[in-house]
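Archive entry: two folds, one per protein. Generate the first.
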Amino acid sequence: MQLREFLSVPYLLEAEAVEAAPGQWLVRLTYPELPGCVAEGAVVEHALRDLERRRIETILDLLEDGHEPPVPRPPLAGADPLWTARDLGLADRVAALADNPRAPVARG
């Protein structure tokens, strides 16, 4: 698989309301299929943006360390993960890995 495909895998998203303090609630979002992919916030949209950033960073970290990210289902054909990476300020990091011919982005 290529980097774009890894970034297009649709992961299961879990959401829950958590009480941070009496009467103070946050939303906790997770991609449980990816290690450490958790975000919390008072505003769902902010937590989702943080979670998407963490998803991309986790996939990049795994690939840079020579490990394949989990692929529980096939990549979405119509996804545009590069747009998301640019929007989250990760375009340079994605481009560096995608442009590196020795980067571990293909299955053996």
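Generate the second and append.
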Amino acid sequence: MTSTAAEVVRLLTGRGETLAVAESLTGGLVAAEVTAVPGASKAFRGSVTAYATQLKHELLGVDATLLAQRGAVDPQVAAQMAAGVRRALGADWGIATTGVAGPDPQDGQPVGTVYVAVAGPSEATSPPVDGKVAPLRLNGDRAEIRRESVRSVLALLLTELVGAQTGNERSQE
């Protein structure tokens, strides 16, 4: 996974772009993975670990009605988290994780339900619900679900970065 983080940092640095991270179920693991890469400080702006649902609204600007109606484990919530952290921390790119790592279901969602999202420069003037969201159905224990969520959000970002750089080309993981 570190190779994905290293490639993300390399691409962002080469383009003079920055990254901000919003995390829920991963609890800071995405930020830790990115900052483990030497030179990450050239691209990484910071992160918000909004574990409590209320903080997703207060710190990241996720719509309160959406949170009340659907709960925190929702694709639109993930998209708004990514867009919100991008705005809040003044970054070119924002990524987000939200989901259920277990051991118990949350908001009516089973363990392993995860949404990862990316918001990039092309969403600068769009509503905060825009961006790229990937729904995941993960298996394993709590630690495995969290690690796979980190891997997945970084892979999604890498795909978007490569796509933004080369047009229609998509990266291989």
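Annotation attached to the second fold: Residues 123-129, 168-173 have pLDDT under 50 and may be disordered. The beta strands are 19-23, 44-49, 93-99, 113-119, 132-137.
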